[in-house]
Amino acid sequence: MSFTTKRSGQRVDISLQGQLYVEEATELREKLLREVDGGAILFHFDFARLDYIDSAGLGVLISVQKRAAAGGGQVTVSGMTGMVKEIFELTRLDRVFAPR
């Protein structure tokens, strides 16, 4: 799995590619929580090139959502297809994260 982040003011755009498992989730969580600590409150995840996400990856999104919401921000997602979309629907997280 690989990811890129782009920050503009209080907004961070995250693009994920491949499969997000626990090993990569730890690195991603640390990076994004540093962004929150640096004042970011708006996060957008682009899942168009993400093939799979496990529970640790979902935990990253929930952690970022909680921290962003505490500062008046939010997390949005786009590009969910296939297995990723199915996992979000099964866990009902598609109702938690605002689509874009």
TrEMBL record:
Which Pfam family name is an example for this entry? STAS_2
Q: Name one GO molecular function term.
A: anti-sigma factor antagonist activity
InterPro entries given in the database record: Anti-sigma_ant, MlaB-like_STAS, STAS_dom, STAS_dom_sf
Q: Where is the STAS domain?
A: 14-100
> What protein name does the entry list?
Anti-sigma factor antagonist
- Species name: Aminomonas paucivorans DSM 12260
Q: Which family does it belong to?
A: Belongs to the anti-sigma-factor antagonist family.
Could you name the domain of life of the organism this protein comes from? Answer: Bacteria
Against Gene3D superfamilies, the record matches this protein to: STAS domain (3.30.750.24)
